[in-house]
Design brief:
It is a single chain. The chain is α+β, with helices and mostly antiparallel strands and 483 residues long. The chain has helices at residues 5-13, 19-25, 30-37, 88-100, 110-113, 126-130, 139-142, 153-161, 178-192, 196-208, 257-266, 275-281, 346-357, 366-377, 382-390, 400-408, 415-428, 433-445, 449-456, 458-462, 468-482; strands at residues 48-54, 57-64, 66-68, 73-74, 81-82, 214-215, 229-232, 235-238, 253-255, 284-286, 289-291, 295-296, 301-305, 308-317, 320-327, 332-338, 364-365, 396-397. The longest helix has 15 residues, at 178-192. It starts with a helix and ends with a helix. Residues 12-26 have low confidence and may be disordered.
């Protein structure tokens, strides 16, 4: 049996044993490891499909579970999932194509394209919309008739037109905006004279060979379609559509992981737009212009890890969760699509697969290694395992919040494991609020309100404004559990 880097990571690095000893003791194939990564999708469950692309070629493409539970249709690499916010990279490309054609500029004002927009729209540029710096209000908060009918992008525009102000002055700050990308879809339609679907078909999908992809349109069939589900008590419930599902610019594309290969290839050449425009999309933009740091470009989140640029985007909507990551320096891309909203952590799975196909150049997510060791060998030796990983900082990526997520994954089914993980986080990262927050939830769940309050009090002391939701929740629990 041939043992790959991925397998040896599990068998040697985390176990701290010699290769010859461990290979005799336990043989584990690459498929065993992939089955572990995607165990939540194996069986009669909603599905996941993933692809690993290296140097423009498919290195791995597999699917687990069912695209359509009602009709027992298994997922394949050609299964079409609703991309949710992964759509934004395509919408942004649509705008860049119009810029490349000379029909728009970065500084074109919103009111130049949509003159009926209120006066405050004259301060919003195309660039502000693409980089989430427009200040437009969230359409989800403006519509109170949730469940009565589906909204489309034009409805979002009409909601925004009735508002008399922005959340903040345009370009003064970053705030993720689905409204902005719905408006971008309307701008594409106004400038091109085509529907958003027609434009995507003609200007992107057909040009680069994405023959399996489409834009959602109610009533039109979608080939190889996955339907969205969630686990409800003892059954999987079909929740494929909701009020926001027909809004296109921020989340309405259906595509497959195999089609993403064509998209990825197109991002390394000038088939769609010039290299300069591609570089703009892959760079952060702030109030002063383009920067090389982390942040948000045009349809892409940007992270700098060990001096490498990671271009990512997650997507989540009713019944679907997805994640894409491109690491141009290594020419590696990993994409994971799912048709259930029940599981997080797709980013860590993607980073793990990227690590393997980089032959160790990209660090391995430590939380995944810890999870596998816990499930196979128990929780008792977690501190030693963690210390082994920590002693190799260039090989393993230790992220505090992902260790907290690992702890919460055991809260309902194996609470003692939860306690051990959160204690590990608290001990190793005493200035990070996450371990205390996890311990507070553990003790609250187990009826020890006194200990829960003690740990909840640490959250506002250590958390930052980026963690306001957790701060508010902790303060609420302190009052409630102290009564």
């Amino acid at each position: 049996m041939k043992y790959t880097y991925l397998t040896l990571v599990f068998l040697i690095l985390i176990c701290g044993c010699k290769p010859s000893e461990q290979l005799v003791e336990k043989k584990e194939s690459k498929q065993d490891v992939l089955n572990f990564l995607f165990q939540d999708y194996i069986g009669e469950k909603p599905s996941t499909s993933f692809v690993v692309i290296k140097d423009g070629e498919i290195k791995e493409c597999q699917s687990f579970g069912y695209a359509d539970l009602e009709n027992k249709i298994l997922a394949t690499c050609e299964t079409n999932y609703r991309l949710a916010s992964v759509t934004k990279q395509f919408t942004a490309m649509g705008i860049l194509i119009l810029i490349n054609q000379g029909k728009l500029t970065y500084n074109t004002k919103l009111t130049e394209v949509i003159p009926e927009f209120p006066e405050y729209g004259k301060d919003i540029t195309i660039k502000n919309l693409m980089s989430h710096r427009s200040g437009l209000q969230d359409y989800e908060k403006l519509y109170t008739k949730v469940g009565e009918e589906q909204l489309v992008d034009k409805d979002v525009l009409n909601l925004l037109i009735t508002q008399d102000s922005l959340l903040f002055p345009a370009n003064s700050k970053y705030q993720y905006s689905n409204s902005g990308y719905a408006v971008l879809a309307m701008i594409i339609e106004r400038v091109s004279g085509k529907t958003f679907k027609e434009f995507m078909d003609k200007e992107i999908f057909e040009k680069i060979g994405m023959t399996n992809s489409t834009v959602y349109q109610k009533g039109l069939p979608i080939k190889n379609r996955a339907y969205g589900y969630t686990f409800n008590d003892s059954i999987y419930e079909n929740i494929d559509q909701n009020t926001w599902s027909a809004i296109l610019g921020d989340g309405g594309i259906y595509s497959s992981v195999r089609d993403y290969v064509h998209w990825d290839r197109g991002l390394y050449n000038e088939t769609l737009v010039s290299t300069d425009l591609l570089n703009d999309a892959f760079s952060n933009w702030d109030e002063n212009g383009k920067t090389e740091g982390k942040g948000y470009g045009f349809g892409w989140r940007i992270f700098i890890i060990n001096d490498r640029k990671y271009l990512t985007h997650a997507g989540g909507t009713t019944g679907f969760r997805n994640f894409s990551v491109r690491i141009p320096s290594e020419k590696i891309t990993v994409v994971i699509y799912t048709n259930t909203e029940d599981y997080d952590g797709l980013d860590r799975k993607a980073y793990f697969l990227a690590s393997y196909y980089s032959d160790g150049k990209i660090p391995v997510p430590a939380d995944i290694l810890l999870q596998k060791d816990i499930e196979e060998n128990g929780i008792e030796n977690i501190t030693n395992k963690f210390n082994q990983l920590k002693s190799h900082p260039t090989k393993f990526d230790i992220v505090e919040k992902d260790l907290v997520s690992l702890g919460f994954s055991y809260l309902k089914k194996e609470p003692e494991k939860t306690l051990n993980v959160f204690e590990l986080v608290k001990t190793n990262f005493p200035n990070y609020f996450g371990g205390y927050f996890g311990l507070a939830q553990y003790y609250r769940t187990n009826g020890n309100n006194k200990m829960a309050v003690e740990y909840f009090k640490k959250v506002p002391e250590l958390a930052t404004s980026d963690d306001q939701r957790q701060i508010d929740y902790a303060n609420k629990m302190i009052v409630q559990l102290s009564q």
